[in-house]
Design brief:
The chain is mainly beta. It contains 13 helices and 51 strands.
């Protein structure tokens, strides 16, 4: 009975009782609480004299005060949610929005990343035990799958710029994962989770052992983990079974499960006047398992022709009826298999001098699966081919201008006979750290360590198609009555005629000829040396606490490389994105200092303290050179119950290897070509029409679907070695309220304001913004913003991108944008001892914790030189720097009752409503043009409420059991059309599993 109670107290009491200015005495007598809270700091490392190091500072101190608020997640939160990966808990915090997750299939990387304040994963610094961790790719981002969640003591989330303390990347804030250091004995545990529908099984098995040795002079902890997650496909849930798009439907025809209605067709602007209703229609890809001829628009076939299943004939293509539903072939939840080993230890090698080390090894595999490869390119077709009937030959003959019996026309096709596209992202990573810390004098301490980490990724891809082989296999000739590939060179290489002009008609041997598999290799290395000295200087007046300082030096070396398969590097590929090799490295040498000055203590006011820190960084990158970062803050407690605090910080983010040296890679971002019918009606002016024609769109196709047959447009993306650093300014101000007349109540309210300038982003803010800026703002093809669209359009249709028969525009990185966000974090927790127990104990305890964020502003400007084109993101779904719902209010709260060996807990997660970003962010030139909500099927995504119920109890003195159900009310995501990220929703934000059960056990001895 006592075991669970004591464990709960030692691991979570700090969260519940030091949300504000804590005193050690109060922490000792407080009742257990669980969940999350905000406090002024938690020990990342402790000294033998009771001093601690607060995250966000390198100065040791005897209290938990700090000028910046820290949200803290206790280890119990992971147990009470059944989490097997840290992302499952961290992404529910109001300060975080999902990066890539276990639900990120396309787009996705197989990793799990952190994204504070939606400022981007590259602007969020991840630490473990207060030190940098291993990165997994050329973007130098941490994969949360490498962090052992079962070994966590707590997780601290610090808002705002912290570059003066930790160096580059800490723009949005810092997330510090503290591993438990107190293990003496062994722990064996595991968890198992399963959805109500009986799928998506997840389980892990954990082992850890820790012990002291050499009469307590040394300690060592080792741990191991095995994790497995089974996949769920999108067709396993009604809301994601059919790809959905915006459209005009028959009134009242919306299916209550799928959210999709009966398509009425026609433009949305005239839908209601035609007796229709704006809603969701079946949506998909114009590349289907039966070939289409999008470039032939005679006979009233404005979208081209699609072949019949068997007879070689064709008929006009119908959108959306003929679109391919790619949803069932995609993962909703990705599978995973992980092996994780690690350890850490320390040994007092001399009096007051301790050596320490940390070791970690991870092997993690997260496959992705997509629909079979779509392809679209110009082919040289033989009119007399037996693949075509006479009706089809009649469509082709007018194109044979030289009379040679062959015509060149665009063909779209999807290789269902080749099977789905698969990529197995298998990562192997290790991290080694060694250091020495100790006392120089009674008031002077040192800490020196070196860390080296490496991650190697192997991506094995299946289902790609060679474009050149596809062209050879469809260009045929008839010799002696036999059909064969026309090119002798191709025949020598094994070419066989490939009949894609029907359903399932291709020879399997021909399919094998054009299908290619590829292996891509990626490597990321981090080298980090830090040496610091901390100590006390003198006291000011009658203060008990002295003026304290920290100073030191740091070196970081970063290198990364990406080596794509030969086919991918050549660009002769359709399926997964082609890419060029990336390789680069740079380093930085830094000096830093920090000062804490207590000015008043129990003199006029209860407490007044100032703090400041600065760092000078010398980068090997010529475009950056030397950079200063700095911060200054203050705390004022007029009385013991109230503390006012504030801080200003200047932070930087140096460009990473991908930003600098990234070779061209191919992507398919959602975009709207103003020359098509997908753009705003207000932009369909005569001036833009003429601009489109001048850019290569056939006059008859301007403002039609032929210019953009798919919602995504293919483009190339890459780096620029001349990039400079991003800079940010963060202001925080808050109040901590711990009323002595209400014991155990802690309340904090903190305002944050972050502005990032010279943001590294894709040229023009991305393909969509670049299109809009060129054709609706600049309206001059000689303007630099239009340079990437010269010569990229399909001459027949006017479409952009290789999959549509054109060329891919090159949209590279640039210091071009700005990001701004501001809001208020509110936190509270309270615990109440109750003289009542149903388990026979003396008393029970009721505890409550609350974390909420009100988002005042979230703004992005794709091109800082054009501030009029600022995107309003608060209460909406911005696309920069990542596409995520940003509700104006969200909170996470937990109510728990502990009684002897038992704990019962209820968590409530709330996400406020958001609206379609196009309502407030549609522009005609530089003029913001609000849109009519009636024209959008998802003008507003309603609020989401999730309730999670869990319980934990001590079965014996050594065995603890936890059970629970997440999403107790089985709330389902709203089905979205063009607003979605993937799977007709935002699967990282909204719950897609439904009611989800878990059970776990932990044996300690």
């Amino acid at each position: 009975m006592v075991a669970f109670r004591s464990r709960l107290l030692t691991t979570s009491v700090l969260v519940g009782t030091t949300i504000g200015l804590a005193s050690p005495a109060l922490a000792q007598v407080a009742e257990p609480t669980t969940g999350t809270g905000i406090q002024d700091g938690v020990s990342a490392d402790g000294g033998s004299d009771g001093t601690i190091v607060v995250t966000g500072s390198r100065i040791q101190r005897r209290d938990l005060t700090a000028p910046s608020p820290i949200a803290v997640v206790s280890s119990e939160e992971f147990q009470l949610t059944g989490a097997i990966n840290v992302e499952q808990v961290i992404n529910t915090l109001p300060q975080a929005v999902p990066g890539t997750t276990g639900f990120s299939n396309n787009p996705g990387t197989g990793a799990a990343t952190l994204n504070l304040r939606n400022l981007g994963a590259t602007r969020t610094l991840v630490l473990v035990n207060g030190r940098r961790w291993m990165s997994y790719d050329t973007n130098q981002i941490v994969d949360l799958n490498t962090i052992p969640q079962f070994m966590l003591q707590n997780v601290e989330v610090l808002t705002g710029g912290q570059s003066a303390t930790y160096g580059s990347d800490a723009i949005a804030g810092v997330v510090n994962f503290n591993l438990r250091q107190d293990l003496d004995g062994a722990i064996i545990g595991g968890q198992y989770a399963l959805t109500e529908q009986g799928d998506g099984a997840r389980y892990d098995v954990n082992f850890a052992v820790g012990s002291k040795f050499a009469d307590g002079r040394g300690s060592v902890t080792v741990y191991a983990n095995y994790t497995r997650r089974e996949p769920i496909f999108q067709d396993a849930r009604a809301f994601s079974r059919n790809a959905a798009g915006d459209g005009c439907i028959v009134p009242g025809s919306t299916n209550s499960s799928t959210g999709i209605g009966t398509n009425l067709g026609g433009a949305l602007g005239t839908c209601v006047s035609r007796g229709g209703e704006v809603g969701l229609v079946p949506q998909g890809s114009a590349s289907t398992p039966v070939a289409t001829l999008p470039g032939i628009t005679t006979g009233g076939a404005s979208l081209g022709y699609v072949f019949n299943a068997t007879d070689g004939g064709t008929r006009p293509f119908n959108d959306p009826a003929d679109l391919y539903n790619f949803a069932p072939d995609n993962y909703l939840m990705l599978p995973q298999e992980r092996y994780l080993l690690g350890g850490y230890g320390s040994y007092e090698i001399a009096d007051n001098v301790t050596g320490y080390t940390e070791v970690s090894f991870v092997k993690n595999s997260v496959p992705q699966e997509l629909a079979p490869t779509p392809i679209g390119q110009a082919l040289n077709l033989q009119i007399a081919s037996p693949w075509f009937n006479e009706q089809t030959r009649g469509l082709l003959r007018p194109l044979d201008t030289d009379g040679d019996g062959y015509v060149s026309t665009n063909v779209n096709f999807r290789f269902n006979q080749s099977g789905p596209r698969n990529v197995d992202a298998s990562r192997t990573a290790f991290r080694l750290l060694g250091g020495v810390r100790g006392d120089i004098t009674q008031n002077l301490r040192f800490d020196v360590y070196y860390m080296y980490a490496r991650t190697e990724n192997q991506q094995y891809q299946q289902g790609n198609i060679s474009r050149s082989r596809f062209a050879s296999a469809t260009e045929t000739e008839i010799v002696n009555g036999a059909l064969r590939c026309r090119s002798a060179t191709a025949r020598t290489a094994g070419c066989l005629p490939l009949n894609v002009f029907g359903l399932g008609l291709a020879d399997p041997a021909a399919i094998r000829y054009v299908t290619i598999n590829s292996t891509n290799l990626e490597r990321s290395d981090v080298r980090n040396f830090v040496g610091s000295i901390t100590g006390d200087l003198f006291t000011v007046g009658s203060n008990v606490d002295p003026v304290a300082f920290a100073a030191g030096v740091e070196y970081r070396g970063m290198s990364a490389s990406y080596r794509p398969d030969t086919f991918l590097a050549s660009g002769d590929v359709a399926g997964f994105n082609a890419g060029q090799p990336t390789s680069g490295e740079y380093d930085v040498r830094e000096v830093f200092g920090e000062l804490r000055v207590p000015l008043l203590s129990e003199n006029i006011v209860h407490k007044l303290e100032l703090n400041g820190n600065a760092r000078y960084s010398d980068y090997s990158l010529e475009a950056i050179g030397g950079v200063w970062t700095y911060a200054a803050g203050a705390q004022l407690s007029p009385i013991r119950d109230v503390t006012l605090r504030g801080q200003y910080a200047r932070a930087v983010r140096a460009p990473n290897v991908q930003d600098l040296f990234g070779g061209n890679s191919t992507g398919f971002p959602a975009a709207q070509d103003p020359c098509s019918d997908r753009g705003a009606a207000g932009n369909r002016t005569e001036a833009i029409r003429q601009l489109c024609v001048a850019n290569g769109v056939p006059a008859a196709n301007v403002f039609t679907r032929a210019v953009q047959p798919n919602a995504q447009i293919q483009a190339n993306f890459g780096g620029d070695p001349n990039l400079s650093e991003e800079t940010s300014d963060t202001y925080t101000a808050g109040v901590v309220f711990r009323p002595s007349f209400v014991p155990r109540l802690n309340v904090t309210i903190d305002y944050f304001n972050i502005k990032v300038e010279d943001t590294i982003a894709t040229f023009g803010g991305g393909l969509n913004d670049a299109l809009s800026l060129c054709f609706t703002v600049a309206q001059n093809l000689s303007n630099p913003i239009c340079s990437i669209f010269q010569g990229v359009r399909n001459a027949t249709t006017g479409a952009i991108g290789e999959t549509s028969g054109g060329r891919n525009p090159n949209v590279l990185s640039a210091n071009i944008a700005t990001l701004k966000t501001s809001g208020i974090d509110i936190a509270a927790d309270y615990s109440l001892p109750v003289d009542f127990s149903i388990t026979g104990g003396d008393r029970s305890n009721i505890s409550f914790s609350f974390l909420g964020t009100w988002l005042d502003k979230f703004r992005s400007t794709s091109v800082a030189a054009i501030p009029e084109r600022e995107t309003i993101g608060e209460g909406s779904v911005p696309t920069v720097p990542s596409i995520n719902p940003m509700p104006e209010w969200r909170h996470n709260t937990r109510l728990s009752v502990s009684d002897g060996p038992m704990l019962l807990s209820l968590r409530w997660r709330y996400l406020g409503p958001v609206k379609d970003r196009r309502l407030d962010n549609t522009f005609v030139g530089l003029v913001r043009t609000p849109q009519d909500p009636a024209l959008f099927p998802n003008a507003r995504i309603g609020a989401a409420n999730y309730f999670d119920l869990s319980a934990a109890f001590d079965a014996t003195e050594r065995l603890q059991i936890n059970i629970g159900v997440n999403n107790l009310t089985n709330e389902k995501p709203e089905v979205l059309g063009s607003l979605q990220e993937q799977a007709n929703t935002f699967p990282g934000t909204y719950d897609v599993l439904g009611r989800d059960f878990f059970v776990g056990a932990r044996l300690q001895f």
